[in-house]
Fold these 3 entries.
Entry 1:
Amino acid sequence: MIIDPIKIYEKVKHIVREGFLHILSCPTIKCFYSRYFKEKHKKQKRCENIMSVDTKRVCLDSIKLILSLLVIGVMASSIQTPGHREPNFSIIMIVTVDWEVGNEDALMHTIPDSTRAVLTLFRKHDIKATFLAECDSIVNMFEYEDLVNEILADGHEIGFHFHLIRWLQTETQMKTSIEYAKEEAGRYNIDLKSFRAGCFEITPKYLELLKEAGFQVDLSEREGTPYWLDNRMLELPLTHLKKWRFLNYYLDFYNRDMEKIVNEKYKDGADIFVLYFHQWNIVEDKKLLDYMDNFFEHIEKNYNVKYITCEEAYQMFYTDEGNNVSISHDDP
């Protein structure tokens, strides 16, 4: 069954209007006003008695009215509608996976099954994603040869993911961590181009060394829109929706408001979205895979979506003449 959001919205407005009129016409409220004005010239004691009895009822009805309107408001705000631009307008979805062992050693044995489940989902939706492979003293994902080959065979990009930047004290240590990852990736003829720091913690020096090593894209920023770094790497921040002053919703599958983020950002003019998750998320949350499937179906039904890798995003923003294209107000 196809749900028309506009019809639902109009229905909610009708419910609000009818409910409001119904409560205002309820006997208690009508009785209060009627009796108050009729009796106001009578004895003060009689008037006070009317007020003491009926005011309580009016307060209760008022509280019910406020609660009803709040509930209806929440229902109305949860209705997901795409923007009002042309239906054929394209959005670009950059799907990234922090491909790693996870927070617990117990998740190590789940890597093959969880990775293949994600790959199956991507095949269903014809998604070309970027797998950012952890390669450090914690785990070397390039040791999973079968999985690396399956990821590459499906046309996905493999990038570099590193957690230990905060513990690297010298430039030599930083260079070594990058060189080790490039060497491991080189066994599969992979030229690493994209990087995300663990916990989104990056330093200017590490970015400089990444650029020197041939990296083109960084994904270590949690908020903002795509822009060029001073070293001319492309920064692809995680898409987020700011709510109030300190509350942000991120496009990261840790919440169930992903459709709302896309819809509202689209209405505000956004057409490039950066999404991320860990493959082990589907192990910790058994319902997540189904939600991911529904999310991709939602955006494919409501938008003309194109899935691209981070390396493809870099090429899209870079001209054949080798000049960077201005892509946001943050462009230096």
Entry 2:
Amino acid sequence: MIPKYSLLLLIISQLHTFEDSDIDGVSNSQDLCPDTSFEDTVDEDGCPEKQNYWGKISLSLGADINRDESSTTDYNFFIDYNYQKWDIALYSSQQSNMDMDTNSNKSNATGDLYLSMGYTIDSHNLSTKLSLGSKFSTGDDEVSTGENDYFTSLNFSYILNEKTALISQLNYTLLGDSNETNYNNILSYSLGVGYMLNSRWYSSVLYQRANSIYQDNDDYQAVSLFNSYIFNDTFFGILNYSRGLDTLSYDHTISLKLGVTFE
């Protein structure tokens, strides 16, 4: 016979390892729908049988407007699928070059196609996302190296309080060399702070640095102010301003994006 105090400790231990806030028979750690009503019949994921969670898809279209002595505009699209802690992203762009003397369009070029997959790990106040991806050389010679690239990145977010977080990213890109040029691989990082102004508006300030793909060129450096705003359950917008700090980068870049989310 188990002593009474031992049995009590066993029961307490079981209560701590199986928490079920909405009392649907599925533990919090496995419940994808943690707020179901008591009368709902749920599946193995804790969701009402007719409301299975299939993940979230985000689509956005936008433009990056670059200005200094020369001018370019990158029109881009981005699609992201997120399920639990996994996400898959696809990105590409179309570049338009402007003749600053005549203020007319000088050329257009199709950009490369980027595909990545990421996984997020949450531990106390720290969130870490590991991503792996590849650039497929589908772009024109004006904006592409003509070779496939491979990259990996680590994103960190450390929550200081309910509104503020320290954020950083470390990225390494293995560049494919062309027949004419041996490119440098790229090591880049960013450091900054993010702040939730309210439940819909998020803002961050970042310092970014990366080595050049060309020999003997200065590192790319910039500071940026990022803003995202959720208009409603479906639509969101992004506004970003970046100021180049080196001699080769664009002095000013403004990024505008509008997106829609399906869940």
Entry 3:
Amino acid sequence: MAVSGAKAILDTSIYLVFLRKDPPIYELSFLLRPTLLYMSSVVFAELYAGAKDRFTMRQLQRVYRTFERLDRDIAPDKQVWFEAGQVLQQFGTRHGFEAMGLARITHDVLIALTARKIGAVVYTRNKKDFERIRDLRDFDLRVDDA
């Protein structure tokens, strides 16, 4: 019987390490083994929006095509969007953020809730924001402090 792996979504902060420093992709030793990586459309949008040159855009297109071919690209559905609105309202009430602050964290909420829906772990370097989100909605989180 085949053993299924743990599902994981890497936050933008993890991918940026690879795009900026260009380490080999197998340097993901912090992941649980075995791991099935999924690409959040939210993460992809953040990465692509920040691409500064053609080389990076080509790298990102290859990454996206790979996840798409494996059927491991995931997007927030209407249920996730609705719940994200609730979380953002609670977040603003609890932390006193103005609308601009809530807009900044919206992507992270969508990533967290999408991961929760598919039973995936979120890996990030953005400890503060994701732990605040987890205070409002439980999801599996691993912080890479490297």
